[in-house]
Amino acid sequence: MAATDNDLVERICRGDAAGLALLAERYDGEAYALAYRLLQNAATAEDIRQTAFLRAFGRLGEFNGRAAFSTWLFRIVINLCRDWHRSQRVREKVLQKARDAHLQEQAAAPATGDGPEEAEMGRRVARAVRALPRQAREVVVMRHYMDLKFTEIAEILETPVSTVKSRMAVGLKLLRDSLEDIQL
Amino acid sequence: MSGSSETQMNCETVREELPALLYDELEDTVRQRVEEHLRQCEACRAELTGYRRAMHMLDEWSEVERPSQPRRERAIRPGRRGWRRVGPAVVGAAAAAIAFAVLSLLGLSVSYNEGRLLLTFGSSPDVRPGAPDEAFAEHLPALRTAVQEAMDTRIATLLEGLETDLVEIVNAEGQRQLLLVHALDQRRETDLRQFAAAVDVLVQRQEEETQRAQRFQADMMAWRTSMENRLPQTTDKQEPKEKS
Ligand SMILES: [Zn+2]
Fold first, then answer.
1. Is the pLDDT of residue B39 over 90?
2. In this structure, is the dihedral angle defined by the CA atoms of residues B26, B32, B37 and B40, taken in order, positive or negative?
3. Average pLDDT of chain B?
């Protein structure tokens, strides 16, 4: 029988360190994926994953168990992504161009693995997601890729559910427009 | 026609619910009302179709790229003994084994050895829970210096230098330079910042522990003083009382 997150948190607070590793392992992949989908940079996502866990465990005393541990952890990840964006805006702009250039290069090169069309489509969608306003992008990523419910997202963002839904609508609308020419 | 007026939804309300409809998060009663409106309203149907299309297109982006170096790949899962490697060789300057381990109240310990930063979950023999770790405090200035030096040399040259030139590069140069920037960015070492963050966490805990110890000590002193004041007769010959 797997321990619940809150069981593990409780164990950790009692000094049982094994709970820490279990909890970290449980959310490693998701914390990374969330940061990666939001920032689309592997090195930075890895940074944020590590920092998020350090921060989460360093401040476990502040975690009051009212929300789920995952909610709290994802909120930390989101905040780190926001901080990163804020502090790196100029740099990010340039690196973004660099990434796009890299992607174009890749697209021009012969396909590897996936069919060329498939891979190209994925990259276009990734670019379209990246181009979304931050608030819409956060919601789209969490709802579609992390499979979190609107209520859970609302809790993570500390925002009303109605706001979350309307950000999702904005996101879908923008995606629809920017990917208009793609044939599915 | 069907449905009373109180169950009628207007286009605006319906559209607010479309994302929840798409992701199957509407309560039955609301969903029925939304669907009823959709049956009658072509504009909202078209809107839904567009959203649905966008939603399906999102599936095309499936790949989550993993960090480039294989060691990072490994870092995703803790090893058998719970060791988690946070960084590669960090600095030459601090090469001599500065080793320290601090166990927080949580059982998280960080050690720095031969230029490698290790995070470990679980107890290790080096680790003494509870008491402030003097060995760590001793090494702290050296660590700080090491981090600072490393930051100065590597980050300053690699990243900051890069940043100042970035805008110009983009304006003046083309594709090749951008690719170079991308490659550099992919390869940049992120570990120093992790190291700094880890040190901050440790420092903070160390300070908390020290404060706690100081508070305890102060309490004990106060208690002793009060006891002495209250019971002046219980003299101890080893400790002569002050005389006036
Ligand atoms: Zn309508």
1. yes
2. positive
3. 60
Between A and B, how many residue pairs show a Cβ–Cβ distance under 8 A? 179
pLDDT-derived band at A41 (thresholds 50, 70, 90) equals confident
pLDDT tens string B65-107: 887 653 333 333 333 323 233 333 332 222 222 222 222 333 3
- CATH number for A124-184: choose from 2.60.40.10, 3.90.950.20, 1.10.10.10, 1.10.10.60: 1.10.10.10
How far apart CA A91 and CA A32 sit, in angstroms, is 22
In DSSP notation, B48-79 reads HHHHHHHHHHHTT----PPPSSHHHHHHTS--
Distance between start and end Cα atoms, chain A:
43
How many A from CA of B37 to the centre of ligand 1? Answer: 6
How far is C-alpha B232 from the geometric centre of its chain's CA atoms?
55
Of the candidates B19, B182, B58, B179, which has an alpha carbon nearest to the alpha carbon of residue A128? B58
Interface of B with A in 138-197 (CB under 8 A): 163, 166-167, 169-170, 175, 178-179, 181-182, 185-186, 188, 190, 193-194, 197
The answer to whether B44 and B80 have CB atoms below 8 angstroms apart is: no
Q: A37 and B170 in contact by Cβ < 8 A?
A: no
Q: What is the mean pLDDT of chain A?
A: 84
Q: What is the DSSP letter of B109?
A: E
Answer yes or no: CATH 1.10.10.10 is held by domain A1-91: no
